[in-house]
Amino acid sequence: MKLKCLVVVLCFGVGVMAGKYSREVNEPKPSGSDGQTVEFRIAKLNQVWEKAKRMQLSPVRQAELHSDLKIQEKDELQWKKMKVEGLDESGEKEAQLRRNFNVILAKYGMDGKRDTRPLESNSLKDHDTKEGDIFDDPRLDKLWNKAKSSGKFSSEELLNLKREFQHHKDKIHEYNILMDTVSRTEEIHKNVISPLEGDAKEHVLHQKHTELKQKMRNLNQGFERLRKLSHEGFTEDSEFREPRVIELWEAAKRANLSEDELDSLKEELRHFETKVEKHSHYQEQLELSHQKLQHVEALGDKEHIKRNQEKYNTLAEKTREMGYKMKKHLQDLSNKISREGLQHNEL
Predict the structure, then answer these.
(1) Closest of 57, 44, 97 to residue 75, by C-alpha
(2) Which CATH number does the domain 134-236 belong to among 1.20.81, 1.10.860, 3.30.1330, 3.30.310?
(3) If you ran DSSP here, which 8-state letter would residue 37 be given?
(4) CATH topology for 238-346?
(5) pLDDT, tens only, 22-70
(6) Which residues form the signal peptide (predicted)?
(7) Residues in a beta bridge with 31
């Protein structure tokens, strides 16, 4: 009896120590209606995942999609609990989840149409691509080429700056996907006949436009920071290196938080930055492992192929797991900064 109690206590202790970012990942994989093991607990997410595996996405991009789908799964399961409890009567959360899902489909080219969304800028549309134009946006390319030739940056600083430019390019792309989703929703909205349904969709559209405005503000603030950084260079007291962490830190400083709250958040962001860097390292290793596997497959040694395939599968699983934990932590930090900033503004 004592032994049984000890085992129960130990198991409980290990479960608690695993941490909130490991719990979901370490759960056993769910089973479908036919008893077969499936990747996700929601049917439409499994359909997307199976389609993605047939699309021959790069290993890193496939791992990124898996992490995005895990976040979507978590959010949808939480929403289902909310619905049972009678929350989300306005349907706002449900509309946001639908929008997030559509953004994932568009982001990975799975929305049934070619991705012809241009990267928006204030420059003329007939911009010619030149050597050195690596960000598909005239303003970004001009700023990057000027910074690169200024002599203000060391090789390591240029690498960090390039990552920030790439992050900004990705944010522009995300904005354009969201804008495209809103435009399509508005077309549907025009065809609504029922007045009650129309009022509900009007509310949803208002929420989407609010989100678009906030993303545009963030883009403008991000570009202004890049412009300042390109002209002045990195300062000695630069707090962080990772673009996503820098973006969170800048948002926190604008959120009217107290010094103690900022200090506490800064420490949490340092831990998060380590997680982001570790994830980036695993992505690089996954790409290298894939290249090695392709090389070995070309040679045709079955035993060698098997060993490398096993290593690659393990690394892919680890990269997906770390990607989910990192994105979950990013989501939590973003919500925390928004929530605390809102509380201060109300005071």
Answers:
(1) 97
(2) 1.20.81
(3) B
(4) Receptor-associated Protein (1.20.81)
(5) 555 556 566 655 556 789 999 999 999 999 999 989 999 999 999 999 9
(6) 1-18
(7) 37
